[in-house]
Amino acid sequence: MSDAAPIQSQPRSARGEPVISLRNVSKNFGAVSALTDIDLDVHAGEVVALVGDNGAGKSTLVKVLAGVFQPSAGTISFMGREVALSSPSVALDMGIATVFQDLALCENLDVVANIYLGREKDPWHLDEVAMEVRAWTLLNELAARIPSVREPVASLSGGQRQTVAIARSLLLEPKLIMLDEPTAALGVAQTAEVLNLIERVRDKGLGVIVISHNMDDVRAVADRIVVLRLGRNNGVFTPADSHHDLIAAITGASENSVSRRAGRLAAQEEGLA
Amino acid sequence: MTHNPNSVAGQALDRADTRVRQDEGLGGALRAFIDRVRSGDLGMIPVAVGLVVISVIFTSLNPVFIRPGNVSNLLYDCATTGIISLGVVCVLLLGEIDLSVGSMSGLASAILGVLWINNGWHPAGAILVALGMGAAVGALYAKLFNRVGMPTFVATLAGLLALLGLQLYLLGSTGSINLPFAQPLVRFGQNLYMPNWLSFILALIPGAAVLWTGFRARARRQAAGLTGVAMSVILVKAVALTVVLLVVVLYLAQGRGVPWMFGLFVLLVVVMDYAFTRTKWGRSLMAVGGNREAARRAGINVRRIYLSAFVLCSTFAALGGVLAAARLGSSSQQAGSGDVNLNAIAAAVIGGTSLFGGRGSAYSALLGIIVIQAISNGLTLLNLSSSLRYMILGGVLALAVIVDSLARRSRASHGRA
Ligand SMILES: Nc1ncnc2c1ncn2[C@@H]1O[C@H](COP(=O)(O)OP(=O)(O)O)[C@@H](O)[C@H]1O
Ligand SMILES: [Mg+2]
Fold first, then answer.
1. Which ligand ends up closest to the CA of A68?
2. Which of A51, A60, A226 for mutating ligand 1's site (highest number of atoms within 8 Å of CB)?
3. Whose CA is closest to atom 20 on ligand 1?
4. What domain range includes position B232?
5. Is the CB of A60 within 6 Å of ligand 1?
């Protein structure tokens, strides 16, 4: 099913040059093929949502682009040039910032140290004042509710940690931002704030990849919705496409538990009526 | 301050959240400190308390313990193992261990004796070779860890044996080499004390530094729209530090004064403290010790951090070995054996550097080694056999690790890593 001509929509409009292009990217973990022949383009000023069931390979794809994992095969071009993302620092230096699903924060360090980790000002005499001011500025932009930036990250709630991780990704003025389930632990107001932020960075001309299981959020911000299923491309949608088609691509069948449940509810309502 | 562009609605940036208690002035600083301690962030407290208890007990058992002459002597003994312990702190902060520091110090003392006395080298050259050997051994451990993934526990255990073998091999034909008494290096190791006027001046410097950096940081923070530390807090800190140091120095001046070698040790501690807390390298070290994968994803070159920490550790061990040889006036097969290894590691842990990585301080080597040497010294004064000394030191180390583990659990339940 997954290979049977997926529902293909034209992108709404390619907003700019491709920031990143993947061709036939595969990633194996021993016998497990987490990713197989993935193609993906993200243009400047475009938000691409990456959706798929648990284990579809979304986080693996993000980690390949962040330089955490090396692809087993395929080519990656960044700003039109073929590149090897051989380590996280290479990706960061190119301008690829990532909010990882597990956040990757150092719990023993405070918020300022985490935001600036690896990018400290004045390596031989850390400029704590400048770093703290910039940290507050970034956090205030995200309407963060963090009482003190001098507490170790271990003392923060899940949502606060997520905000710290997002603030960190904005520090370097990147060209591509990847957010792996950035709103999973956030409250209502903060989720809206993050969606606003995604639109703001898109309008600044950055490329954005966002992973979310919340289809309403995805439709609200995405220009294109790329579906992964079992580690393969399974169609590209726009927010205008029907919910039914999108779910069918994610689950791999038009007849699936989601549609069955919807059908059952509809039947019940008819029965009541 | 209310007109600062960075401030939020007339509030300093870091006080804008209404949930933050507005800890101001001395009382506020004290309250914040008590909160930290109660949540399990004990820092230097256990070791400071321990030191007072130990001094009181041993002084009551034998008043010689607290005499200036004995204290000077004690500080001399602290310097050699303390410098080794300072290196151990580097690897403990990564959550790793180096079990071979004792053997490394013994090998360094053997290299010194063989090159200097047997081969007629200039002592400076012999010291450089010894330190270079330390750096090479540390680099080898780091390579084994980075490339092969060999646990440092095992690599350094192998190193403990191999380095000891090399030490015995080098000394083989002679067994023990006496170092000439009149040489500056040996005098440095045995009876070179600071003139009293100099030690008074040096005792004033830390307080002055606290004042200067404190006021500067305060002014900069306020200019940037952040709250600064209260004047009173800075003043009290500076005065307290100066008083304590002056009392110690005045007291030691009644005897022979402050040993230069102890001065060197303290200087190295201060330098390493700066490196741990004020440089990018130190921040990276703490990050790798706290969460290695997170540090890697932040773009930190994790391998280089391991390399630097292990090279520093073994080099400090070699330096400690050179100074120990100067202290003993000989390079012998016994150098670095016995309790040197365990004392150096125990000192770091007793001083409050966690075995679990990511937290600790250079000062833990200083305070920890003073505790250990005070116990050794006190028990020796009581003419107790070394059997009892080992048992008591073992108990103290176990106690320190228990405190570390309990504090860690308490921090976890209070959400402080
Ligand atoms: N480090 C790893 N080693 C082995 N298998 C992995 C590893 N990381 C991910 N996988 C596998 O790759 C597949 C995709 O995982 P992931 O990318 O995390 O999915 P998701 O789309 O839920 O983020 C899963 O089957 C997972 O078990
Ligand atoms: Mg995932």
1. 1
2. A60
3. A55
4. 194-255
5. yes
Same domain as B399, residue B341: yes
| B300 close to A (CB below 8 A) | yes
Per-domain residue ranges of chain A: 2-95+174-241
B268 and B240 in a common domain: no
- Whether B9 is in a domain gets the answer no
Check whether residue B61 and residue B80 sit in a common domain.
Answer: yes
Do B124 and B213 sit in the same domain of this protein?
no
Instruction: Clarify whether residues B206 and B321 are in a common domain.
Output: no
Strand partners, A99: A179
> B268 and B167 in one domain?
yes
Domain boundary among B255, B270, B299: B255
Domain-embedded: residue B318: yes
Residue A30 CA to ligand 2 centre (angstroms): 19
Count of domains observed in chain B: 2
Residue B304 touches chain A, beta carbons under 8 Å: no
Substitution candidate for ligand 1 out of A29, A64, A101, A102 with most atoms within 8 A of CB: A29
For every residue of B125-162, DSSP letters joined together read HHHHHHHHHHHHHHHHHHHIIIII---HHHHHHHHHHH
ipTM, 2 dp: 0.89
In a domain? residue B336: yes
| First and final C-alpha spacing in chain A | 36
**Nearest-angstrom CA–CA distance, B401 and B211:** 35
Claim to verify: residue B185 and residue B310 sit in the same structural domain:
yes
Q: Please report, in tens digits, the pLDDT of each residue of chain B (417 residues total).
A: 334 555 555 567 777 666 666 666 777 778 877 887 777 777 677 788 888 999 999 999 999 999 999 999 999 999 999 999 999 999 999 999 999 999 999 999 999 999 999 999 999 999 999 999 999 999 999 999 999 999 999 999 999 999 999 999 999 877 889 998 888 898 998 889 999 999 999 999 999 999 999 999 999 999 998 988 888 889 999 999 999 999 999 999 998 999 999 999 999 999 999 999 999 999 999 999 999 999 999 999 999 999 999 999 999 999 999 999 999 999 988 888 878 998 999 999 888 898 889 989 999 999 999 999 999 899 889 888 878 888 888 888 888 788 878 877 877 777 665
Residues B387 and B369 in one domain: yes
A2-95+174-241 has CATH 2.102.10.10 classification: no
CB contact, 8 Å: B13 with chain A? Answer: yes
State which of B255, B270, B294 marks the end of a domain.
B255
Q: Kindly state whether residue B386 falls inside one of the protein's structural domains.
A: yes
Nearest chain B residue to A93 by CA: give it: B299
| CB contacts, 8 Å: A126 with chain B | 278-280, 283
